[in-house]
Amino acid sequence: MNRPAKDTRWRALVRRVAMAAIAAVAAVAVADIGRPAAAQPSPGPAPAPGAPAGSASERSKLSIEPAGHAITRLSIENPLGDLKVEGYDGTALQIETHKFAPDDDALDRLHISLVPNPDGTVTIRTTADGGKEVRPVARGAVRIDMVIHAPRDARVEAVLSSGALELANMDAGGDLDTGSGPIWVRNVQGEVLTHSVSGMTRLAQVFGSVDAQTLSSNVDLDTIAGDRLVASVHHGRIDGRRVRARNVELTATEGAIILEAEAALRGHLAVSSFKGDVDVQLRRHGGVLVRARGTKVDLGAPVRTQPNGWVEASMGSGEETALVEIRAAHGNIKFAIIGP
Amino acid sequence: MTMCKTIQPRLTAYLDGELADEHGSVVRGHLRECAACRQVARDEAALRDGLRVLPPVDPPATLWAGVQAQLAAAEVADARKPRWRRAVARWASWMHWARWAPVPAMPQLAAGALVAAAAVGMLTWRAHRADGLPNRSDERPPSMAATQVPPPGQHQGLSSPPGPTGHAGPAAPADRDVTADLLAEPARTTASYEQVIEELMTLAASARDGWTDEQKTAFDAKVAALRGGITRAAPGRPQQRAERALIRALQGAIVRDDLVLASGGVR
């Protein structure tokens, strides 16, 4: 008769032992999460120089291996901090985040949501919870920085506010948007679109069409090779080096433009500033027709002055002549052929 | 029977063509001789075909709000749990992610599946502590100890390139809560764009004196069309995109003489 009671006690004991074992395993697993695996390409993000002076911070790591469909597009919105997306030769998405806040309560308000879609798009958004019951925290006191290692052939669409946005080593271009945060693109293939209100925009080693627009900041272009390069600033300057595109259109309302480019056969370069000097140095293949109109024009060659105020010069010969148009309504123009 | 238990969970992946050669071969071989599993595979394939012909379904606008509300409720419940239960839950959440890859995916062809996947896959992940539990540091890293919060537009992070940065619209009140500040941001950005548009319109008014009537008409029509686009665009990024288009067009007219070319004149 005692047997059933004994069984029950035995089962209860076994259950307690099992639960203790599960809890122990869980604790070990939680402690292990986030430790960089040997195969991961880099350690966690370096502390951001602009991180707010808070007293609580939290790091996290996540690796997502796609099921079925490769990750083809990343859509990221991080209005609370920096973002760096770096391509690597892998299929998984590796996300490292670092949150900062004045205290644990404020830290708990910072969230990162991640939505993987079956079409290969992964959407990542950072938010800060609100509500009447929370103690107000100034925006400058909280921060979420993210470093993402993504498959190279994923296209990146990112929107930031005042944080720095960096895109590197990707093969499918991107569409990048910031408020006042700087944009830095390097070693990227594919179409690259950048928009910033007042963030310095720097593109280096971009192999594809580029469209960069800012309102009040500079644009720096280094080693751009693609079919089309369009860059415009309202207040700010444009600097371009080692630019090679069939169609180049650089426009500044108020700011200088300095361009060192290579003329493509039958290419078209339009470099225009309303209030600012323009300095163009060109490596040419075949003939080049240069037309310029500005306060003072120096084309470095004999010129023909047209009745409408344009100054023209032809250099070299050949049927596939490139056309260079330079305007500086209230500025000086300097043009020179460089190289052999 | 043991073989069937092993094979059946892999059928979806097999039908999706996701199994590596050797695993696919095992499943194929088993299906040749097991009528029960063959039937399961047929049913699965029929289900996939059925899903494939379903018309696309637009998720209702309320879906996202609903998901967020449920997440918020879940977080409130989570906060009330003892610390050890939260730790276990985090671990379980991590295990869910880890399983995401190897678990055979449902057929991802129909919009219904898309909505379901989005709803199920939507996660807010709390910190998987990198350095063990707890990882919330009460001390700032040395490199950050002396760092001050940069004013908007002067932040330089992530090895950011050198150069000046300006500001994005009117400054936000320093004591405003982060949530309210985030909500106000699109309006600030739009204000910046509007300010530049006004500056360019002023320049255009000056340049107008040198235009022909035809050019003036073309300019006014273009500006009206682009302003209409701004009005029609949804607030936020679509509206900002439309404003950027207007800025580009105004720059073209003022800086590049695009109007002259468009009207057949000589630049």
The assigned structural class of chain B equals mainly alpha
Number of helices of chain A: 2
How big is the Rg of chain B?
29 Å
Oligomer state equals: heterodimer
Mean pLDDT of chain A equals: 86
β-strand number of chain A: 23
Please report the distance between the alpha carbons of the first and last residues of chain A: 107 Å
Largest Cβ-defined interface? A-B, 113 and 99 residues
Averaging pLDDT over every residue of chain B, what do you get? 67
What is the percent of helical residues of chain A? 10-25%
Report the sheet-strand fraction of chain A: over 45%
Helix-strand sequence of chain A: HEEEEHEEEEEEEEEEEEEEEEEEE
Give the biggest beta sheet of chain B: none
Walkthrough of the structure:
The complex is a heterodimer of chains A (340) and B (267). Chain A is mainly β. Chain A has helices at 2-32, 104-108; strands at residues 56-64, 73-78, 83-88, 93-101, 110-116, 121-128, 143-151, 155-160, 165-170, 174-178, 183-189, 192-196, 201-207, 210-216, 219-235, 238-254, 257-262, 268-275, 278-283, 288-298, 304-305, 311-315, 322-337. Chain A has a 5-stranded parallel barrel with strand order 16-17-19-23-18. Chain A is elongated and about 105 Å long. The N and C termini of chain A lie far apart (107 Å). The model of chain A is unreliable at 20-47 (pLDDT under 50). Chain B has 267 residues and is an all-alpha fold. Chain B has 3 domains: 2-52, no CATH class; 62-121, no CATH class; 178-262, no CATH class. In chain B, 63% of the residues lie in helices and 1% in strands. Chain B contains 12 helices and 1 strand, in the order H-H-H-H-H-H-H-E-H-H-H-H-H. Chain B has helices at residues 2-7, 11-15, 21-33, 35-52, 62-80, 83-100, 111-121, 142-145, 178-207, 213-232, 237-255, 258-262, and one strand spanning 123-124. Chain B is elongated, with a radius of gyration of 29 Å. Strand 5 of chain A pairs antiparallel with strand 1 of chain B, so a sheet runs across the interface.
